[in-house]
Amino acid sequence: MKVKISEIENSNKQERTINFSQIYEEFNKNIPVVADLKIEILGELIKITGNIKAKVNLVCDLCLKDFTKDMDINVKEFYSRNSLNDNYKDEFEIKQNSFVEDLNGQDEIDISDFVYQCIILNIPNKLVCDINCNGSEKVNEYLKKDFTDPRLEIFKTIKIEKE
Ligand SMILES: [Zn+2]
């Protein structure tokens, strides 16, 4: 789904709300990603705010089983219609603590891609299906094997703080 900026600019309120729903096969073949977004034109900048909900199929790092992660993401992103000069860019990033993407004069924003990027950026690095996950036999065995080297025995006494 693509949104033309000039169309929003020509509307009375200079903004547009979008109720978005799309299947992304790589996240979930059956359940669509839904998003309620508001696009506002603020002079040179375009602000996108709203919420994205997705059920993303992932593989647990510990037990290696498939699981579905419910994602509920609040977004607040800015686009610049034209290239920001470097001084202004620094100032803006410090003030808003936000990344500004340049459109370089392009008249449309690819909402499908925007939503995709938001989800990818919010998938945690460490994937665990459940806080009580005990891991798989395979993974546990592998970890045990690692500690059979007598020179590594010392590590058994080190306590690992849980996050
Ligand atoms: Zn697990």
Task: Write a concise keyword list for the protein shown above.
163 residues, alpha+beta, two-stranded antiparallel ribbon, 4 helices, elongated, binds zinc ion
Order of helices and strands: EHEEEEHEEHH
Number of helices: 4
Low-confidence stretches: none
Mean pLDDT: 84
Number of strands: 7
Main β sheet profile: 5 strands, mixed
* Percent helix range: 10-25%
Percent of residues in beta strands: 25-35%
Distance between the termini: 39 Å
Q: How many domains is the backbone divided into?
A: 1
**Can you list the strand order of the major beta sheet?**
2-3-4-5-6
Bound molecules: zinc ion
Radius of gyration over C-alpha positions, nearest whole angstrom:
22 Å
Structural class: alpha+beta
Shape: elongated
Please tell me about this protein's structure.
This protein has one domain (2-130). Helices cover 23% and strands 35% of the residues. It has helices spanning 5-9, 86-96, 111-122, 137-146; strands at residues 2-4, 15-22, 33-42, 45-59, 66-80, 100-102, 108-110. The mean pLDDT is 84. Bound molecules: zinc ion.
Please specify the SSE layout and strand pairing.
Layout: E1 2-4, H1 5-9, E2 15-22, E3 33-42, E4 45-59, E5 66-80, H2 86-96, E6 100-102, E7 108-110, H3 111-122, H4 137-146
Parallel strand pairs: 5-6
Antiparallel strand pairs: 1-7, 2-3, 3-4, 4-5
Zinc ion binds at residues 60, 62-63, 65, 128-129, 133.
